[in-house]
């Protein structure tokens, strides 16, 4: 018996279907003070469990999300499951993929170490923010990681559902350049990335680049995460007279709401459920898992 244990959402159920595994729902009880208690009932002990947990934009609490996964992994280990593979479509604390200033926490490494200590052998994440560890198979001893591309299903969705006219794919900063190239190759178009300079003390950013004249073309702005929307909004200000503007983002957090971009078509994946999560990544995750 092989099972997918997870929150009863479309991503978890679809992943079970793609893998051909039984789906077992995980119930999470939340106490008034915010403490969580995930409950997993196994009638028999599976030889392999894929533990899936998701998070929503409307109830975004990354710390609770992480604790739910930690406790659920420990529950499975205590129940006698030897092979636990964790799917965290949105991988928390991945932004801190290096120590930038003395005394800072190396949070991405700490998260991997915590799961490794609980017996988790694999973590599958979707377009995680760990830019300095693009393939993090050996990031932490005892646990392996797989970075599933969320841009491939996003690009195919745009190509299949919109009659794109002479598409131009734009990365809003240097880090997004590789993703812009990835999407451009699928939709059939050019790519370019702006440059962004951030003040590490204040957090203020400034965007550089000249792509103002894209008259009559469909422009697709791509990024891994839209949090406050500042980076994407700055990119849209660089565009003039485009035919249409699309914003294609893997993780839609929308910490300041979902109305910051007027006149653009917003599309995200369902790694974080939100009003624009039109692209299901379960098939991409299943494909990655079958490779290993």
Give a description of the structure:
This protein is an alpha/beta fold and 292 residues long. The protein has 2 domains: 2-149 and 281-291, Rossmann fold; 151-270, Rossmann fold, CATH 3.40.50. It is built from 7 helices and 18 strands. The chain has helices spanning 10-19, 62-79, 107-117, 151-161, 177-187, 230-236, 282-291; strands at 2-6, 22-25, 27-30, 36-39, 48-52, 55-56, 84-87, 120-126, 144-148, 168-171, 190-193, 195-198, 205-208, 218-226, 244-252, 265-269, 272-273, 277-279. It has a 6-stranded parallel β-sheet, with helices on both faces. It has a 6-stranded parallel β-sheet with strand order 11-10-14-15-16-18, sandwiched between helices. Strand 7, helix 3 (107-117) and strand 8 form a beta-alpha-beta unit. Helix 1 packs parallel to helix 7 (282-291) and helix 4 (151-161) runs parallel beside helix 5. The two termini are 18 Å apart. The mean pLDDT is 89.
């Amino acid at each position: 018996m092989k099972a997918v244990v997870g929150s009863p959402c479309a991503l978890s159920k679809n992943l079970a279907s793609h893998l051909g595994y039984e789906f077992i729902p995980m119930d999470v009880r939340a106490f008034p003070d915010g403490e969580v208690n995930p409950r997993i009932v196994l009638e028999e002990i599976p030889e392999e469990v894929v533990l899936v947990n998701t998070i929503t934009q409307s109830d975004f609490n990354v710390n609770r999300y992480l604790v739910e996964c930690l406790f659920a992994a420990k529950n499975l280990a205590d129940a006698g499951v030897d092979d636990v593979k964790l799917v965290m479509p949105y991988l928390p604390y991945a932004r801190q993929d290096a120590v930038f200033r003395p005394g800072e926490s190396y949070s991405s490494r700490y998260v991997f170490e915590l799961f490794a200590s609980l017996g988790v052998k694999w973590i599958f994440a979707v377009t995680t923010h760990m830019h300095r560890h693009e393939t993090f198979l050996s990031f932490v001893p005892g646990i392996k990681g797989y970075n599933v591309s969320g841009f491939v299903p996003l690009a195919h969705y745009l190509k299949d559902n919109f009659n794109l006219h002479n598409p131009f794919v734009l990365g809003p900063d240097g880090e997004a350049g590789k993703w812009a190239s990835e999407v451009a190759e699928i939709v059939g178009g050019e790519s370019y990335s702006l440059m962004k300079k951030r003040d590490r003390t204040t957090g203020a950013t400034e965007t550089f680049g000249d792509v103002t004249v894209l008259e009559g073309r469909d422009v697709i702005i791509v990024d891994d995460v839209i949090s406050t929307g500042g980076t994407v909004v700055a990119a849209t200000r660089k565009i003039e007279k485009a035919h249409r503007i699309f914003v294609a983002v893997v993780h839609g957090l929308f910490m300041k709401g979902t109305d910051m971009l007027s006149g653009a078509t917003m599309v995200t994946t369902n790694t974080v459920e939100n009003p624009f999560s039109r692209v299901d990544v379960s098939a991409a995750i299943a494909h990655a898992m079958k490779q290993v």
